[in-house]
Design a protein that fits this description.
This protein is of the alpha+beta class. 36% of the residues lie in helices and 27% in strands. The strands form 5 sheets. It has a 9-stranded mixed sheet with strand order 1-2-6-7-10-15-16-17-19. Strands 3-5-4 form a 3-stranded antiparallel sheet, with helices on one face. A hairpin with a 3-residue loop joins β16 and β17. The longest helix is centred in the last third of the chain and has 26 residues. The protein is globular. The chain starts with a helix and ends with a strand. The chain binds adenosine-5'-diphosphate (ADP) and magnesium ion.
Length: 341
C-alpha cells in the first residue's frame, strides 16, 4: 500500500512537472486581422486562450473608436462634425492628447491632421496618384495640430471646419499598450505582441532571457539588426511598408506635413524603443520625417526614448541607452554603426 502511494505520488509529481513545463515553455500563438494589418499575439504561461480572447476584444473595441473608415467611430464623428465639439470616449481623448503632445515635441513632424494630404496621394484607397502642387497647397491649409481643441473635462474634441484626423500613425501603439495592461492584469503573463510591426513585450520570457527583436532591412525580409530587451515597446516606421512607383520614383505613405509630400529625410527606417507605446509610435513616424540631425536633437532634449535609424547610405545610428542591447545580424556586419550619446 505504502509503495502504491509512493508510486502514485511519483506519477502525480511527474504529471505536474510535465504540465508546468508545457505551460511555461510552449508558447500559444494566434493571428488576428484588424486595424488594417496582421496582429500576432504569442502567449507563454497560463490561460493563453483566455488572454488572447481578452486581447482580441480590446483590439476590436479600440478599432471601433479609432478607425477613420468606420462611419460610427469617434474619429469619423470628429471629422464629420468639424467646426463643432464632439463627445468622444476617454481612450480617444487620451490618444489625441499623446498625438498632440508628440506634434509639439517634434514641431509638427507627426501631425494627425495631415489626413487630407494622405488622401490626396491615394494612400487611403490604394488608388495612388502624384497630386499637383496646387492641390497639395490647398489641402495643406487644413493641416495644423494646433487647431485640435481637446476639452478633457467634457471628453469633447473640436477641429476647425474642413480639417480631418487620422490616427494611423499612433493607434497601433496605443492599442498594444492597452493589450499589455490587460494581459498584465490577468497575471503571470509572458507574451509578445506584433501589431503590424509594432512590437510589445509583456513580462519576462519564461527562461528569463531577454526578448530578441529583429529589425527589418528595408526591401528585403531579413533582419539587419537585433535588440535584446525586457518589457517595453519597439516600433519601426519605414517608407518600404506602403508605397507606389511612378516614372521610376517611389512614393511612400509617410508624409512630411511641412511639404505635403512623402518625407525625404535620408532615413529609410526608424525604430523607437519607448515604455509609452503610443508616444513611441508617434515618435517613430516623426523621426522618419525629421531625419537624423533633428532626431538626435530631440533625443538629447526629450530623453524618454531610444532609437535606431538606418539611412540611405546604410549607416546605422543607435542611441546610447540601447547600445548594449543592439547587434548587427549575420550578413549585415559591415554596416557602419554610429552610437549617439
Ligand atoms: P505604419 O502605420 O505603416 O506602421 P506609421 O506609424 O509611421 O506607419 O504611420 C503612417 C500612417 O500615418 C500613414 O499610413 C498615414 O495614414 C499617417 N501619416 C502619414 N504621415 C504622417 C505624419 N507625418 N503624421 C501623422 N500621420 C501620418
Ligand atoms: Mg507611427
Amino acid at each position: 500500500m505504502k509503495r502504491f502511494f509512493g508510486l502514485a505520488f511519483c506519477i502525480i509529481l511527474i504529471i505536474l512537472c510535465c504540465s508546468c513545463y508545457d505551460k511555461t515553455k510552449e508558447p500559444y500563438k494566434e493571428e488576428i486581422f484588424a486595424m488594417d494589418t496582421v496582429i500576432t499575439i504569442t502567449v507563454y504561461g497560463e490561460e493563453p486562450q483566455e488572454k488572447i480572447a481578452a486581447a482580441s476584444r480590446e483590439i476590436k473595441r479600440l478599432e471601433a473608436l479609432f478607425s477613420v473608415t468606420n462611419e460610427s467611430s469617434d474619429i469619423s464623428g470628429i471629422n464629420k462634425n468639424s467646426g463643432e465639439f464632439v463627445k468622444v470616449s476617454d481612450d480617444t481623448v487620451a490618444l489625441l492628447k499623446t498625438a498632440v503632445e508628440a506634434s509639439e515635441l517634434t514641431d509638427g513632424a507627426i501631425d494627425i491632421s495631415v489626413y487630407p494630404v494622405v488622401k490626396l496621394w491615394g494612400f487611403t484607397t490604394g488608388e495612388y496618384k502624384v497630386p499637383d502642387d496646387k492641390h497639395i497647397t490647398n489641402k495643406r491649409n487644413f493641416v495644423d495640430y494646433k487647431k485640435i481643441i481637446i476639452d478633457e473635462k467634457n471628453s469633447s474634441v473640436k477641429i476647425e471646419k474642413g480639417m480631418e484626423l487620422d490616427l494611423g500613425a499612433v493607434a497601433k501603439g496605443y492599442t498594444s499598450q492597452k493589450i499589455k495592461n490587460i494581459l498584465n492584469e490577468m497575471g503571470n503573463t509572458s507574451a509578445i505582441i506584433n501589431l503590424g510591426g509594432n512590437i510589445e513585450t509583456v513580462g519576462k520570457k519564461p527562461d528569463e532571457d531577454p526578448w530578441t527583436i529583429g529589425i527589418q532591412y528595408p526591401n528585403d525580409s531579413n533582419y539587419f539588426s537585433t535588440l535584446e530587451l525586457g518589457e517595453t515597446s519597439i516600433i519601426t516606421s519605414g517608407g518600404y511598408q506602403r508605397n507606389f512607383e511612378e516614372n521610376g520614383i517611389v512614393y511612400h505613405h509617410i508624409i512630411d506635413p511641412s511639404t505635403g509630400k512623402p518625407a525625404d529625410s535620408g532615413i529609410v527606417s526608424s525604430t523607437v524603443v519607448c515604455d509609452n507605446s503610443a508616444m513611441g509610435d508617434a515618435l517613430s513616424t516623426a523621426l522618419f520625417v525629421m531625419g537624423k540631425d533633428k532626431s538626435i536633437d530631440l533625443y538629447r532634449k526629450y530623453n524618454n526614448f531610444e532609437f535606431i535609424l538606418l539611412d540611405e547610405n546604410d549607416k546605422v545610428y543607435v542611441s546610447k541607452g540601447i547600445k548594449d542591447s543592439f547587434s548587427l545580424s549575420q550578413g549585415y556586419k559591415d554596416l557602419e554603426v554610429c552610437i549617439v550619446e
